[in-house]
Amino acid sequence: MYTLYIGNKNYSSWSLRGWLAAKLSGAPFREVHVPLVGKGPNPANRTFSPSGLVPCLHDGDTIVWDTFAIAEYLAERHPGMWPGEPRARAFGRSIAAEMHSGFPALRSEMSMCIRERVDVRPWSEDLQGNIDRVTMLWNEARARFGNGGDFLLGAFSLADCFYAPVVFRFQTYLVDPEGAARDYLHAMLAHPYVGEWQQAALAETVTIEADEPRVIYRDKLAGRAA
Fold it and tell me: Cβ(17)–Cβ(195) under 8 Å?
């Protein structure tokens, strides 16, 4: 059985990706919850994670830490996590990699906080650009490869695992994408794996102020109220 180390479900976007990949694999796994501490690597985590970060997957004496590495490690061992059609698979890997390495404004200006709902518009130019790019990718994926299901490449796949935190961010910050992207967002929120994670996140009582939108945007929200 795999062991997956993850952070707080309300806040940890990378843990969500790794957890969804593990669920998608269909293999049994044990969750070990690790409280998030600060923004960078936690030296205390190096006992189980070489990077000091979560998620981290253990398969016997094999340790896999980066989220993309976890996804690919599982995909090598469990069929159906990527589409069988080569063009769809290449597109899916490309958009997952783009999310893995890009969208800095989205990450910094829209922290993942599943239990919150807040409107902090107007957004910055960089953030609006990131939102527009995500919307374009979702619409393109649905138009080109969406037949056979409600998700980016038709059936739920690793591509959806990588965009699940964006779905929660859009929900939190009241982003309403245009076109097929809107239907995709609703389909993701209705997916049983995504719903399971959300219910667990809502049950958490820990508050990390550095990731709370109403703390991050306190001055902006106070000025609007005044």
Answer: no
Flag whether 118 is in a domain. yes
Enumerate the H helices of the chain as residue ranges.
13-25, 67-77, 86-101, 104-109, 125-145, 158-172, 180-190, 192-203, 213-216, 218-225
The domain total for the chain is 2
Pairing of strands 29-33, 62-64: unpaired
Q: Do residues 90 and 197 share a domain?
A: yes
Q: The dihedral of CA 87, 184, 99, 157: what is its sign?
A: negative
Do 210 and 164 contact (CB within 8 A), yes or no? no
8 A C-beta contact, residue 45 and residue 54: yes
CATH number at residue 186: 1.20.1050.10
The parent domain of residue 56 ranges over 2-77
- Write the pLDDT tens digit of every residue in 61-112: 999 999 999 999 999 999 999 999 999 999 999 999 999 999 999 999 999 9
Chain centre distance of CA 145: 21
Q: Is residue 21 part of a domain?
A: yes
Q: Averaged over 174-194, what is the pLDDT?
A: 98
Cβ neighbours of 109 (radius 10 Å) = 18
